[in-house]
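### Sample
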Amino acid sequence: MPRSVIITCAPTGGIHTPSMSPYLPVTPAEIATASIEAAEAGASIIHLHARDPETGKPDPRPETFKQFLPVIKQATDAVVNVSTGGGLGMSIDERLLAATDASPEMASLNMGSINFGIFPMLQKYHEFQFDWERPFLEMTEDFIFPNTFRTIRYAIEKLGGEHGTKFEFECYDLGHLYTVKWFVDQGLIKPPFFIQMVFGILGGMGADIDNLVHLHKKANELFGADSYEWSVLAAGRHQMPFATQSAILGGNLRVGLEDSLFIGKGELATSNAQQVKRVRTIIENLGLTVAAPAEARERLGLKGADRVGF
C-alpha cells in the first residue's frame, strides 16, 4: 500500500514582496493565523520565515519569530520547521539566529550555492509599496545565494548536533543531491532524512517533469529508497502540477504562498489554507491519504514538539 502524503506548507517565505499580493502574511499575527489554518486544512509541516511587521521585509530576528512560534505550537500539532534560508543577502549567522534560538524539530537547509534570480519579477510588478522591494529584486541579477560545504557543515553541527534538529534539505539541482550524499558518507546526516526537491527558480533546475523523474531516480540510487523521504516544490504556475506528480510517484509535497501566490491562472490565492485544501483534494482524488503530524514525526525521526525551545 502507498504511504500517506506529507504536506508541507510555507506560508510567507522571503522571496515575494508585500506589493505582489494583499494576502501574503506579513505580521506575526498573520503568519500565525495562516499557519494554523494551513495545519487545520491538512498540512503536517509548517515551513516558517519571519517578516518585519512594519515593512514586510524578511526578518531574521528571534524576537520576531517568538511572536508567532508559540502561538502555532499551542494551536496545532503540526511540525514547526524554521527556515535557515532567511532572506537573500543575509549571512549564515543571521540565517541561523532564529533556529538556534528556537531549537525546532525541523529546519530547512539549502544544499548548494546558486544564482538565485528573482529579478524577472520586475517585468510583472511595477508599483511597490515599500522602498526596499525594487532594489531587493534588482540585486538578484548579480547575486549568488551562498551555501558552501563549510556553512552547510556548520549548520548541521550547530542545529543537528547541539539541538537535535532534523533538516528539510533543499536541493535546487542534481549536484545538491551529491552534496547530501557526501555529508551522509561523512556520518553527519543520518537516516531517515528529508529531501526537498526545488524546481522553477531561475538559476536552479527548470520545472520540467523529466527533471523530477531523474532526480527521484538518482536519489534512490544514492541513498536507497528506504533511507529517506522526498518531497517536491515548484515555483509559480508549476506548483500544483509538480505537487500532483510527486504524489503520483509516491513522494510528498510542499505548497504555500512562499512558492506561489496563485491558486489558478491569473487568480491570487486568498490564503495558504486554500492551496492546502486544493492539493489535499487532488491527493484524495488519487486514492491516497494525507499524513497526520504524528505520522510525519515518526517517518522523519523527529525529536518531538515537547523538546523545542518555544
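The chain has one domain: 7-307. This sample (3-keto-5-aminohexanoate cleavage protein) is used throughout the tutorial notebook.
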